[in-house]
Each structure stands twice: as C-alpha cells, then as structure tokens.
Design a protein that fits this description.
single chain, two-stranded antiparallel ribbon, 4 helices, HK97 gp10 family phage protein
Length: 111
C-alpha cells in the first residue's frame, strides 16, 4: 500500500519559524560573513584602510522572506561605500569586486 501524506500549511509555517531554524540561518550567515571577510579588499593607501573588511555583520530573524513567514539570515556590510565595492562606482578605475556574491556562492558549500 502506498504511503499517504497530508501537508499541514500551519505546521510547515511553524517549522520554518522554529528557533532551531533561525539558529541554522544565523550559522549559515556567519559562514558567509567569514568568507566575505576573507575576500574583502583592503585599500592600504586609502583614508580608512580595513574599514570595509571590518564592517561585515550577520543577523537572523524568524519573520523574514517576502511574506515574513520564515526564518532568514542576513549578511550586510555597514560601510557607506560598500555598494561601490560590490557593484563598482562607474569609473574605469573602480572595478566591481562582487564580494558578497562570491561569498554567498562559496559560503554554503560543505558547511
């Protein structure tokens, strides 16, 4: 006889918001943060050497996602110029480093 399964949307929602799920999302965000720190460029001759590298933050919440219905982890850089490092500043001399993109791609592997 074939097994039967009836999904409970409420139960799945509770599972996606469990404290252990939030802790796992934070753990994964911390792994990605660690990779991002390792990939971060440092402009030794700039006005704030190492500021970008030291500005990475990881956090999580139980109410994230588009519908605020699941645990999520966030990784962000608080440096005001982080978007220019990530995506470029539009000048030929400032190339895009894609630090967070590369960290997210590499950070979830074998962790």
């Amino acid at each position: 006889m074939a097994a039967r399964f009836k999904m409970s949307r409420k139960g799945v929602g509770q599972m996606l918001r469990m404290p252990s799920m939030q802790a796992e999302m934070l753990r994964r965000a911390e792994v990605i943060k660690g990779v991002a720190i390792g990939l971060s460029p440092v402009d030794a001759g700039g006005p704030h050497p190492g500021h970008y590298k030291g500005s990475w933050e990881a956090s999580s919440t139980a109410r994230g996602g588009r519908n605020r219905d699941r645990a999520v982890g966030y990784v962000r850089n608080g440096a005001y110029y982080a978007r220019w490092v990530e995506y470029s500043n539009g000048h030929p001399s400032g190339s895009a480093h894609h630090v967070l993109l590369r960290a997210a791609l590499m950070g979830g592997r074998n962790q």
